[in-house]
Amino acid sequence: EVQLVESGGGSVQAGGSLKLSCEVSGIATSTCKMAWYRQAPGTERELVSNISTNGDIYYAGSVEGRFTISQDNRMNRMYLLMNSLKPDVTGVYYCAARCYSWVWGRGRTDDYWGQGTQVTVSS
Q1: From the CB of residue 117, how many other CB atoms can be counted at a distance below 10 Å?
Q2: Residue 65: what pLDDT?
Q3: DSSP result, the chain
Q4: Under 8 Å between Cβ of 20 and 79
């Protein structure tokens, strides 16, 4: 069974920092495109950052320069370092994985999600 478990969320004042972790079990992160999503109250879930299997990285414009995504395939973990936090990034942060495999000679893609961790930034 594949599981993604987020940790590291919390409450912080504007300008502070947090580091989120996503621990993955049941599948190798090296076979997955890993991502962080955020869902603020009353809004749809949105992509914050992702890292592809070849190391390509994407950041949403609102966080570029302040957030850093990283992945440790040896530990099967992904991280999101969030600096210079602002109240507008408050929400539940979800770890996600799109994992690629071959089954009976055919390519297969499976998506997995964690339960989320709350991040609250106060002004």
Answers
A1: 19
A2: 96
A3: --EEEEE--EEEETT--EEEEEEEESS-GGGEEEEEEEE-TTS--EEEEEE-TT--EEE-TTTTTTEEEEEETTTTEEEEEE-S--GGG-EEEEEEEEEEEEETTEEEEEEEE---EEEEEE-
A4: yes
- Structure confidence by residue, pLDDT tens digits, 18-75: 999 999 999 999 999 999 999 999 999 999 999 999 999 999 999 999 999 999 999 9
Instruction: Give the type of residue at 31.
Output: T
Cα gap 55→116, rounded to integer Å: 24
Pairwise CA distance, residues 73 & 31, whole Å: 9
Of the candidates 98, 111, 86, 115, the residue with the CA atom closest to the CA atom of residue 22: 115
- Give the residues across from 102 on adjacent strands: 107
| Torsional sign, CA 30, 8, 59, 37 | positive
CB under 8 Å, gap of 24 or more: what pairs does 69-73 form?
Answer: 69/34, 69/36, 71/29, 71/34, 72/29, 73/28, 73/29, 73/30
